Amino acid sequence: MSMAGNLRRVTSLGRVGGLRRVARLARRRPRVDLSHHARSPLGSAVVNCVAYEDGVRVPAGRDLLDTVRRVRKSDEGFVWLGLHEPTDQEFAGIGRLFDLHPLAVEDAVDAHQRPKLERYGETLFAVFKTVCYVEHTELTATSEVVNTGEIMVFVGEDFVITVRHGRHGSLGPLREGLEADPQQLAKGPAAVLHAVADHVVDDYLHVTDAVQADIDQVETDVFATNGARADPGRIYQLKRELLELKRAVAPLHRPLEELATRPIRVIDPEIQAYFRDVSDHQLRATEQIAAFDELLNSILQAHLAQVTVAQNEDMRRITAWAAMIAVPTMVCGVYGMNFDHMPELHWQFGYPLVIGLISVICLVLYRSFRRNGWL
After folding, report:
1. Nearest of 89, 111, 91 to residue 100 by alpha carbon
2. Buried b (16+ CB within 10 A) or exposed e, 341-375
3. Given the DSSP bridges, would you call strands 78-84 and 116-120 parallel, antiparallel or unpaired?
4. What confidence tens digit (pLDDT) does each residue in 160-200 have?
5. What is the pLDDT of residues 273-324, one digit of tens each?
6. Residue 357: C-alpha distances to residues 57, 253, 346, 354, 364 (Å)
């Protein structure tokens, strides 16, 4: 039976006895770090459960419950539990074991939350929006540029729980990077929270750099010789994708500022300086997105102006040709009337004179329009 299957059985078991039963069932399955992109088989909500003391991974207990008891009994270290898109049944037992608030548990399971930071007693609950750039060979009016996901983090004095939603934002490399820096990891669960925030914000900067390349390409196309023929749908699509990116990045400013400035029991004061650095990076990403939005507005206005200019040029050409056609039409219309007394009607040179007069007038008009740039 899988770890996910074990957790589903919690809802039908008692509070203490149920957790013990789940723990006994869980130890039958060896732990595998599913968070790493190279080893992430589908079908299991449990990513990993590891205990750390003084920044070093220590042998886990016989099961999840035993691991948590050992950490709490020694009063040192913490447990890091990672989950990926858990269901209500899978998360119910974990919520009871770590005494998580039901509202926070509901947010972690349902996802689609706004970036935020909340405190429930001694537990800190943070929500981060993850983003990734969707590679494409050519930007079209329907191209997906930005894909979003979520990472929820529960932080207590002796535990940290990460809940990831989406197919990107893997925390496996992040975990390995932290384990390679025991001094930082020794600062406790707050170090994991900072690492997650830093990881998420760094992705923001990478995505904004990639989006800038798309904007530069659109700008080049608009100001090309045939810029009036450019597809405005690409500009609107970029604005839509940029709005999605803004919704992920901008709301994170207040939670990061709170983590960097306000005293929080589960946050080591030394870690707050690191959060200030993350906040600076987030502010940079927010400013870039705002600048991109203004630039796209300018590009769209320039495109519309080019379309208007092109239409005016077309209308001038049509008007010039219509003026030249009006001369023979008028003369021929006069001579097409059924009157007995017409100018030069019975004169031998009347027809050549009229044709010559039409040609001279049309030539004068043509040269005049060419000189004024109408043709």
Report:
1. 91
2. eeeeeeeeeeeeebeeebeebbeebbeebeeeebe
3. unpaired
4. 999 999 888 788 888 889 889 888 888 889 999 999 999 99
5. 899 999 999 999 999 999 999 999 888 888 888 777 777 777 777 777 777 7
6. 101, 78, 18, 5, 11
